[in-house]
UniProtKB/TrEMBL annotation:
Pfam families with a match to the protein in the record: Bcl-2 (PF00452)
UniProt protein name: Bcl-2 Bcl-2 homology region 1-3 domain-containing protein
BP terms from Gene Ontology: extrinsic apoptotic signaling pathway in absence of ligand; intrinsic apoptotic signaling pathway in response to DNA damage; regulation of apoptotic process; release of cytochrome c from mitochondria
Ranges that cross the membrane: 185-203
Listed PROSITE patterns: BCL2_FAMILY (PS50062)
PANTHER family reported for this sequence: BCL-2 BCL-2 HOMOLOGY REGION 1-3 DOMAIN-CONTAINING PROTEIN (PTHR11256:SF62), BCL-2 RELATED (PTHR11256)
GO molecular function: BH domain binding
Keywords attached to this entry: Apoptosis, Membrane, Transmembrane, Transmembrane helix
Record-stated family: Belongs to the Bcl-2 family.
SMART domains: BCL
Amino acid sequence: MNIVKTSGKMSDSVTKQYIEDYCINRIRRGNIDLESYQHVSQEPFNTVARRMREIGEEIESRNPDFFAGCCEQLHISETTAYAKFKDLADELFKDQENGQRGTCMSWGRIAAFITFSGRLALHCASNNMESLVPSVIGWTSRYIDTKLVVWMSDHQGWDGFLDFFDKNRVRETENEILTNAIGTALTYGAVGVGVVAGLAMLFRR
């Protein structure tokens, strides 16, 4: 299959296509195939989608214990899922120095956010909450297109994501995202900051 390059432009439809591709591929890696998503290709549809899959898998593989239980720790249910999701997203992008939400952006945090969304989609599909999968995709897409879009557009959109996670820089970016990740999460969880804050602190770098 020929994988095309992205134009790098930000739009609601493009964002949703990326998030849908990532989440459904993550569910398939969990040996679940949703009939309602047969239209999503087994192969990534362009270079950004391919790299997004690779980065998400790398983040999870470096932190297997954390991702194996993160959704269980949040006690996700059909009635609480959105509130827990939004709390985590807001915490992840909160500037710790001034306490303002949605003010601290980086490609590393955005990759972490997408990785968590894929894991949440898998959790829903695995626990009789399949109806929440399109909601997770929609919540993630809308958050990006409302809260993160300005910063992303100022940093070359999806082309900026691809450039940042270029294979030639993978060791550098791994260090930025993953250094002491598990230890940090366990430390914050132990002092009672709370699961949502602990999840966010996992990728505070």
